[in-house]
Design a protein that fits this description.
By secondary structure, the chain is mainly beta. Helices cover 12% and strands 39% of the residues. A hairpin with a 6-residue loop joins strand 60 and strand 61.
């Protein structure tokens, strides 16, 4: 079989040096191969053996490959030279191996020497040593506007602290930002001054200090200005511009990019400004950008720019892939300048609420002809649902159409994508899936091209050119070495390279030899141990030695084998793979160990944790944070972080947080670690300020002097260095001297100190140093010279320690301390002066001196800077002004909050609270009342937690009123105040009492209501109830529980607590109480149910109980009520319910049944009783009764009193609206005015008026009416009755008025008509007539005597004539006619016979007229039945025979003569009493049959109630004036 030879310069070099034996072995192998290549015969033999072994037909060499004899010789010659050349190459390789071995040995020796030197250094570090400058400062002379770098190297143990001074004054980089830069790298201390100016000329010194001593190194810096002082004078330093390389430039970084925060889809720029010397436009610095120590290159996603003193990196399309530590590295003359800062990139808004963030770091591995393995990193899930899988998409390069590769989400962060087109380039992206939706897609991967790696290697190695001594070019072809192979060999090394739950990836090595023909593969599988092989890829030609298998069953082990196939045939099967089984995807790492958070800066925390015990191919970690007390977590990083320590940035200063960590691998996120302990975000010691020791005190001022001592005061350092300032040290020197002397060996804790042992008359300077736990800080600037002389002025000395509090946009509070020197008398007050910064014109703020040591200043201009001074006053005058204060700007700190007064919701304590906008570890809250520190006071207590401090009043009262203020130390002036007023205190006291004695608030107290069935519900409603509420009902001092007879319940939602009593009786009278306990709150509510209140409740309960029973049968749904019809008929109406067809309905008045003309229809649901012509006679109690076999119900309506008045008013409303205008009507008595209306009754409220004067009814003015009208009659009218008349009808709400003018011609005509009617009436009154006594019909037995007697009247006395059958009756023995006294007329028939039957009549007449009355007489024989009366007559018994032969009939009732021709209203007639006729002696008499009276048509009562029979029938009397209809 032929061998494949790879030239030496194409071989891969190993990192391990081979042994001599390996080198010799390699040389022999190469020699053996060379010998085989040098002989054409050997090659032919190998070809023959290969052909015979594969049993192929004999191969015939093509003509173009046949060589002539000369060609064969030339070939052998060349092959020999090639063999020699290969030997030379092998010797060179051996020589190089020996050299490499020597270098490796040298490196090993150097490494060991370095380790031993390190150990020696560690040993030397343990020896105490004072500072020593190994490399001292050297002087420099530079041109103006050029930078300079002073550096030195110092040694010492412990490591010295180096401080820089300019002319003896400490160099403060904060005083001139960008001007100075102090560095310390690897023991080299440097001071960089950018863009020097002439004033920078000075002596600079570096002072190194440790506990064992101090060392100083000094050097002079001279800055020169060239002649003319041009701006480009520094170019003289670089005369050869084109010869400067970028790495020779001097570069100093100035403004540097800080920690940055971005969001997916946004853009961000990281920029550093720098000073470049010389600054040449055509020679920019060399700048490199790194992300997580990986060099970045310009692309569409990364833009870089260097020039113009700026180095900028722009990321135009942010993704979470961009998160990491960014480093700018610039090559300078002294090496490199670097700066690093972290960039955080958060998730963009999710595609759907709750959807996960996008995956990241999508990369393609193991690229083959039709297969690629895509891998990515999972996103962090903090508050979202867990990720259930991922979708992988692909897109051909240059296109924008994305195709989803997997139908179901894959659960691991790897996915084999197959089915690619050979030679095509692709991009890939991934989307995460959870229960809420699908995430945004990740950033697309780099472009990959689908190519066969093995084929590509074979094609690239097709021709190899070897040069020997520069004379010969030898070309070796792999095809020649591989031979003429047609059928490929079998693949080898078949194994499963990826085994997961959802898929398995098979990998193998291509066959060798493989032949020139295109190659593909066939895969078979079988269940392990069965031997039943089954082909997998039946429809797809597989060109890559990789293939993912997805359809394996769980729980089975499989074996695989592969065939190589080309156009000539198939190889033998490869050796079967080992058993392969899908595994469960539970490979997430274990949870990380203990998480520890420590302070870092004022906005960051350093978090570190223990690695998980089971890492399982760990990718990195996700860190989550949470504010203490909050529920929501937030991500601290958005890309897996590889190390087990991390700095969390962007936190709120002073807030407290806890942290947790999750480990990440391709299977997802581990369980969360345990939470860290809470930590407040505050700077660690030495962080956030320049030094760990305090900054320098300032503002040294002289308070007094007695000639031998001077009392000093100063202000606290602006920065405490991270720990509390615990001591001050003072130095002094003579003003004309240079040597400083220590004043105090022991620490001074106060900021006032008296320096003794001074010489009177000398001038002294002082400086002060502050110390904390980190050491002694830098000294202050020397004070101004102070003369030691005794103060004997009578005025007070200066106030001192001016400070400011509550600085706002337009106001502030200035505070100071009393003068140390008071003068001749005590200080009585102070004046405060103010001036704008830079001005010497001070203005006194207070006209009168203030006795306290603070002043509220208002009316300031926002943003303006002011200075202040204070002057003390005593009885001798105004003293010396204090030292001018530090400038203060009238602007509140960002986020400033004011003091809040409140009441603790749990304890009820009254408190004042302040939340500071900034704070550090050593900050303290100092509370004051009226600007006097409170200290330890039993009336209040102060507690602080985080950024909040609370002052709680122990037992607040009026003594606690006043102005409270608080100052937060070690801040930039955080302070606030609050005035506690009496009203506010009283309000809070009430609230405090309510909280300490909590009461369950009630919307409604205990009350009761009567329910159906007579149940009584006792209830109350609270504003709010919790589910844990408890309560109890107490009745008459005895607790009752839910059980038989009562039910107790509550509803939390509505706050209702209730008890329902089923049977409410007299035993339930008493006091009801509900006691409620809800948490700490409680309340009770009582209801007294006794006496009349209880009786009313009991009555209502019994009524409702009866109502319930009543409604079980037929009942009234609406009881009796009245309505008025349009014709003023009163309707008593009611509504019924639960009725049946057999339900009876009856009406009653005063227990007498009323039968209406129209029977009531109960099935209609409503019944009504009409009462026409309503008047007072209709008063009474009406009753309706509803009954059937199920029960009975009754409704009553009492028409009397107010009910009667209401009905009359309702009638008056309708009648008044229908009233006509007044009509004139004349009568014999006088002139009558009539008003017609739908109905009138005298009970209506009507008023008649004459000329606006009310008319009372009298003999002169008569008032009356009928059913149709109301009238007013003027009797015997005279001219006095002329005028305007009106009638007013009132319905209780409205008055209806009608008028008539009775004057003029109207009166004349009426008066004449009255006289005429009066004469006619007189005639009617005096005419002859039968007053009464005659019956209409007489029935009598024969042989009886009949007497017809009547009373007659007339003036003059009338004449009387009797008739029988229209024939005048003459008086004789049988028939006797008499007329006694002109008053009684009689007709007596003795012993009547049937012949006497007939129609008798009497005619009574005088000169004014008369009357004709008829009587019918019927005679029947003895033994005959009494004849039936005529229709309309009542049956009467036969008259008893009289003792006399004559019978007297029942006379008619006398009727009074009518005064007017107009009849009275048709009211109910009252029957006349019966009058018995005289009974004749010994002869039977007869009784006439009376007529029944006819009921009035407008009778207001039913006919049945008016059906009483009249014993004396009425008779018809003709009236000369017909009645009005």
């Amino acid at each position: 079989m032929p061998y494949k030879v790879t030239p030496w310069y194409r071989r891969k070099r190993g990192t391990q040096v081979k042994t001599d034996y390996a080198c010799q072995h390699t040389r022999s192998v190469v020699k053996h191969r060379t010998e085989r290549k040098s002989s054409c015969k050997s090659v032919s033999q190998v070809q023959a053996q290969a052909t015979e072994a594969m049993a192929e037909p004999a191969y015939t060499i093509p003509e173009f490959r046949q060589r002539t004899t000369e060609g064969t010789e030339e070939y052998q010659r060349v092959a020999t030279n090639v063999s020699k050349g290969l030997s030379v190459i092998q010797e060179e390789i051996h020589r190089m191996r020996m050299v490499t071995k020597a270098q490796v040995d040298s490196l090993a020796i150097q490494r060991e020497v370095k380790e031993r030197m390190t150990k020696r250094t560690d040993w030397l570090d343990e020896i105490p040593k004072m500072p020593d400058f190994v490399l001292a400062l050297r002087p420099h002379t530079v041109w103006e506007k050029t930078p300079i770098k002073l550096f030195c190297t110092v040694q010492g143990n412990p490591r010295p602290v180096v401080k820089w001074y300019k002319g003896g004054v400490p160099v403060d980089p904060l005083s001139a930002p960008g001007k100075y830069k102090i560095e310390n790298k690897y023991g080299v201390h440097s001071l960089i001054i950018s863009r020097c100016v002439v004033s920078d000329t000075a002596e600079y010194s570096a002072v190194a200090t440790n506990p064992h001593g101090t060392a100083t190194s000094m050097a002079t810096v001279t800055v020169k200005r060239p002649a003319g002082g041009g701006e480009l004078c520094h170019l003289g330093l670089v005369p050869h511009l084109t010869e400067i390389h970028p790495s020779k430039l001097e570069i100093s970084l100035l403004d540097r990019f800080s920690i940055s925060f971005g969001q997916e889809g946004g853009a961000i720029s990281l920029m550093c400004t720098m000073v470049v010397v010389p600054d040449l436009p055509n020679v920019p610095p060399i700048a490199q950008w790194y992300r997580d120590d990986k060099l970045l290159k310009p692309s569409q996603l990364v833009e870089m720019f260097v020039g113009g003193g700026v180095a900028r990196l722009t990321l135009p399309h942010l993704a979470k892939d961009d998160e990491g530590l960014y480093t700018l590295r610039i090559f300078t003359k002294d090496g490199t300048a670097e700066h690093s800062a972290y960039l955080f990139v958060s998730d963009a808004a999710p595609s759907a609420p709750g959807a996960p963030g996008a995956p990241m770091s999508v990369k393609a591995y193991d690229v083959n002809a039709d297969y690629v393995l895509v891998a990515w990193k999972p996103p962090n899930t903090v508050n979202e649902a867990a990720i259930t899988g991922y979708f992988v998409d692909r897109c051909e390069a240059g296109g924008d159409t994305w195709v989803q590769c997997n139908d179901a989400p894959v659960k691991v962060c790897k996915y084999p994508v197959h089915g690619l087109s050979v030679g095509h380039s692709y991009h890939f992206r991934v989307r995460a899936v959870n229960s809420a939706g699908i995430s945004r897609p990740s950033r697309k991967s780099d472009k990959v091209t689908a190519l066969d790696a093995a084929e590509n290697e074979r094609l690239q190695g097709k021709e190899e050119v070897i040069k020997i001594e520069g004379k010969y070019d030898i070309v070796i072809k792999d095809d020649d070495l591989e031979g003429y192979v047609t059928i490929p060999g079998e693949p080898t090394d078949l194994h499963a390279s990826e085994v997961f739950k959802s898929y398995v990836v098979l990998s193998w090595k291509p066959p060798s030899p493989r032949g020139r023909a295109p190659l593909w593969y066939v895969i078979e599988k079988c269940i392990a141990g069965t031997g039943a092989w089954q082909r997998i890829n039946t429809a797809v030609k597989l060109h890559s030695p990789r293939y993912p298998v997805f359809d394996l069953q769980d729980g089975h082990k499989y074996q695989f084998r592969v065939y190589s196939v080309n156009m000539y045939g198939s190889s033998e099967a490869s050796a079967p793979s080992g058993p392969v089984q899908k595994v469960d995807e539970d490979g997430v790492p274990s949870a990380p160990g203990q998480v520890v958070a420590t302070r870092n800066t004022k906005s960051s925390v350093f978090v570190q944790w223990e690695a998980p015990k089971v890492p399982k191919n760990l990718i990195g970690y996700y860190i989550d944070g949470r504010v203490v007390g909050a529920k929501e977590w937030f991500p601290c990083n958005h890309k897996p972080f590889r190390h087990n320590r991390f700095v969390v940035h962007g936190l709120t200063p002073g807030e407290s947080y806890v942290f947790r960590v999750q480990a990440v691998n391709i299977f997802g996120l581990s369980d969360e670690s345990q939470e860290s302990s809470p930590i407040a975000v505050e700077p660690a010691l030495g962080k956030g300020v320049e030094y760990a020791t305090p900054s320098a005190p300032f503002g040294i001022t002289m308070l007094s002097s007695d000639g031998s001592s001077i009392t000093l005061a100063w202000k606290s350092p602006k920065h405490c260095g991270g720990s509390k300032v615990s001591a001050y040290y003072i130095d002094r020197r003579d003003a004309d001297g240079l040597v400083w002397k220590e004043v105090n060996l022991e620490a001074v804790t106060e900021r006032v100190c008296t320096v003794d042992n001074l010489t009177e008359g000398n001038f002294y300077e002082f400086k002060v140093q502050a110390a904390n736990m980190a050491g002694v800080g830098v000294p202050s600037v020397p004070s101004a010279p102070m003369k030691c002389e005794a103060w004997n002025m009578e005025e007070p000395g200066p106030a001192y320690d001016l400070s400011f509090s509550e600085v706002r946009s337009h106001s502030l509070v200035i505070l100071w301390k009393a003068p140390f020197y008071t003068g001749a008398s005590a200080v009585t007050g102070y004046f405060v002066d103010m001036a704008k910064k830079g001005s010497s014109e001070f203005t006194t703020l207070n006209e009168e001196a203030v006795s306290h040591r603070y002043l509220q200043v208002s009316g300031l201009e926002e943003g303006e800077t002011y200075v202040f001074r204070v002057r003390a006053v005593n009885t001798k005058g105004v003293g010396k002004a204090s030292q001018v204060s530090e400038p203060v700007c009238a602007r509140a700190l960002p986020g400033t909050k004011e003091i809040e007064a409140g009441v603790d919701e749990e304890t009820g304590d009254i408190f004042l609270s302040l939340e500071a906008c900034e704070i550090c570890e050593e900050s303290k809250f100092v509370w004051s009342k009226n600007y006097k520190p409170i200290g330890d006071c039993p009336r209040v207590s102060v507690t602080s937690k985080g950024r909040t401090s609370r002052l709680t009043f122990t037992n607040p009262d009026k003594d606690d009123l006043g102005k409270y203020s608080v100052v937060v130390t070690d801040t930039d002036g955080v302070s606030a105040s609050h005035t506690l007023t009496e009203d506010a205190l009283n309000t809070m006291l009430e609230l405090s009492h309510a909280i300490r004695h909590p009461v369950v608030p009630l919307k409604h107290g205990l009350n009761y209501e009567i329910l159906e069935k007579g149940h009584v519900r006792f209830w109350l409603q609270a504003v709010k109830l919790s589910p844990s509420v408890s309560y109890r009902f107490i009745v008459n001092d005895k607790e009752v529980t839910s059980g038989e007879g009562q039910k107790i319940s509550h509803d939390v939602a509505t706050g209702v607590i209730q008890m329902t009593v089923d049977l409410f009786t007299r035993a339930n009278e008493g006091t009801y109480t509900v006691q409620i306990h809800d948490g700490k709150a409680k309340t009770q509510s009582s209801l007294v149910l006794v006496g009349d209140v209880f009786k009313a409740a009991l009555k209502e309960a019994e009524f409702q109980r009866k109502e319930h029973i009543r409604k079980q049968g037929p009942h009234f749904s609406e009881y009796l009520y009245f309505t008025i019809a349009d014709d003023c008929t009163v309707m008593l109406a009611c509504k019924v319910a639960n009725v049946q067809k057999d339900t009876a309905f009856r009406w009653y008045k005063e227990e007498d049944e009323i039968v209406p003309e129209t029977p009531p229809n109960v099935m209609s649901g409503a019944c009504a009783l009409p009462i026409p012509l309503f008047s007072r006679k209709d008063q009474g109690v009406y009753k309706a009764v509803l009954s059937d076999n199920r029960g009975k119900d009754t409704s009553t309506f009492d028409i009397s009193g107010q009910a009667f008045d209401d009905i009359i008013n309702a009638i008056a409303q309708i009648a008044g609206a229908s009233a006509s205008e007044l009509v004139l009507q004349c009568t014999p008595e006088g002139i009558r005015l009539q008003c017609y209306m739908s109905y009138y009754t005298e009970e209506m409220k009507t008023v008649w008026k004459h000329k606006e004067s009310k008319i009372a009814s009298s003999e002169k003015m008569r008032i009356g009416g009928t059913a149709e009208m109301a009238w007013m009659q003027i009797c015997d009218p005279t001219d006095k009755e002329k005028g305007n008349y009106s009638i007013e009808i009132s319905d209780g709400v409205k008055t209806h008025t009608r008028t008539f003018d009775l004057s003029g011609q109207a009166y004349t005509d009426a008066y004449e008509e009255y006289l005429r009617l009066k004469a006619a009436a007189f005639a009617e009154k005096n005419r002859g007539r039968v007053v009464g006594g005659l019956p209409d019909v007489v029935t009598i037995m024969e042989e009886k005597s009949l007497s017809l007697t009547c009373t007659v009247w007339g003036e003059p006395t009338p004449e009387v004539t009797w008739f029988k059958n229209e024939q005048e009756v003459a008086s004789n023995e049988h028939t006797k006619v008499t007329f006694d006294g002109g008053k009684f007329a009689s007709l007596v028939i003795n012993k009547v016979t049937p012949d006497d039957s007939g129609k008798y009549s009497i005619n009574v007449r005088n000169k004014y007229g008369g009357e004709f009355v008829e009587i019918t007489v019927s005679v029947y024989r003895h033994g005959e039945q009494i004849p039936e009366p005529k229709l309309g007559q009542a049956k009467t018994p036969t008259a008893t025979p009289a003792a006399t032969p004559a019978a007297t009939p029942v006379p008619k009732s006398p009727a009074p003569p009518s005064k007017t021709p107009t009849p009275t209203p048709s009211k109910s007639q009252t029957p006349a009493p019966s009058m018995k006729s005289p009974t004749p002696a010994s002869t039977p008499s007869s009784t006439p049959v009376p007529k029944s009276p006819t009921p009035s048509q407008r009778s207001p009562t039913p006919a049945s109630s008016r059906g009483a029979k009249s014993p004396t029938p009425t008779r018809s009397i003709k009236s000369p004036t017909p009645p009005r209809k």
